[in-house]
Design brief:
The protein is α/β, with parallel strands linked by helices. The protein is built from seven helices and 16 strands. Helix 1 packs antiparallel against helix 3. The longest helix is centred in the middle third of the chain and has 13 residues. The mean pLDDT is 90. It binds S-adenosylmethionine.
Length: 304
């Protein structure tokens, strides 16, 4: 499989593949397809054998007529279903990080800590097919769980996970002046910034994610003292909307004016309430995520 391509474009579901079984936007699950196994939910029992050979995106039926969709495990969906071993980055921050760090195919990216691998999976897709992500976490179990996840999502050829205390030891010397971008999600990023600076190519970019503004202040001071320039901090807030069909009373009068009313009312112009109609409405989701953290970006300056 060419990891640069969206796998649903040119692949049919095979035995052993990971699929996202999608019921609705807030109910989905990652399942490994195994011939002979079945998946059960409130809509019935689904045989995995019925899924094999179908293209990603297929709508499949249970024996009792219920259905689910079988979607490809894209980084966006994977972020929503992965097992949270740590706090993770979500897609609003991830998109901004990839864009602002200028990560493109072929880039060499360093990351610490790996955590649950939410960001790493998107970084891998951005650098594919010829780039690579080297990610470091000092927690052995988290590192090995992340490795297993990258195997499942078929991104392990683009990612190397190593166990290392990046705040204490810094990034390995073999990366000095090699990295296009560095991403830090560490409790004391200022301890890792001097080493990150050594790994970056001239004009390379760095981003540090921190939940607290005090961490941001210390990171900015260190960035400035390590020859970084164009230091900027952002907070990315995402507002999602719910699209819903609601039932309304239909209303018309003798001038032929018709409208839909959300509730019954006195009709002084002789109009009358007729049969119920439905309307599509949109409103901000009550579950919109608030503050997750601050993203501080900087660029390694070139001294000639
Ligand atoms: C919040 S998680 C990272 C989440 C990740 N960005 C994601 O999207 O899934 C922070 C990680 O940093 C790791 N960590 C903390 N201190 C570290 C250090 N000194 N060196 C390497 N990793 C460290 C922790 O073990 C943890 O897994």
């Amino acid at each position: 499989m060419d990891p640069a391509c969206k796998n649903s474009f040119h692949r049919r579901i095979c035995d052993g593949d990971l699929v996202i079984v999608y019921e609705r936007y807030d109910t989905m699950k990652a399942i490994k397809v195994q011939n002979g196994s079945e998946f059960q939910n409130r809509f019935g029992v689904f045989q995995h054998s019925d899924w094999i050979g179908r293209p990603f995106g297929s709508k499949v039926l249970s024996k009792k007529g219920g259905f689910v969709y079988l979607l490809a495990p894209t980084p966006e969906l994977w972020t929503l279903v992965l097992s949270h071993r740590t706090q993770i980055l979500y897609i609003a921050d991830i998109s901004f990080v990839i864009s602002y760090l200028e990560i493109v195919p072929g880039c060499l990216v360093l990351e610490s800590g790996t955590g649950s691998g939410s960001l790493t999976t998107s970084l891998a897709r951005a650098v594919a097919p010829s780039g690579h992500v080297y990610t470091f976490d000092f927690h052995e179990l988290r590192a090995s769980s992340a490795r297993e996840d990258f195997e499942k999502t078929k991104s392990s050829n683009l990612i190397t996970v190593d166990v290392r205390d990046i705040q204490g030891e810094g990034f390995p010397e073999k990366f000095y002046k090699m990295a296009d971008a560095v991403f830090l999600d560490l409790p004391q990023p200022w301890l890792a910034i001097p080493s990150a600076g050594k790994t970056l190519k001239c004009d390379g970019t760095i981003c540090s994610f921190s939940p607290c503004i005090e961490q941001v202040q210390r990171a900015c001071e260190t960035l400035r003292s390590c020859e970084f320039t164009d230091i900027r901090t952002f907070e990315i807030l995402l507002r999602t909307y719910e699209v819903k069909e609601i039932k309304m009373e239909g209303y018309s009068n003798d001038k032929g004016t018709a409208s839909a009313l959300p509730c019954k009312r006195q009709c002084s112009d002789g109009g009358s309430i007729s049969e119920r109609t439905s309307r599509i409405t949109v409103r901000p989701s009550s579950e919109s995520r608030g503050h997750t953290g601050y993203l501080t970006f900087a660029r390694l300056s070139v001294t000639s």
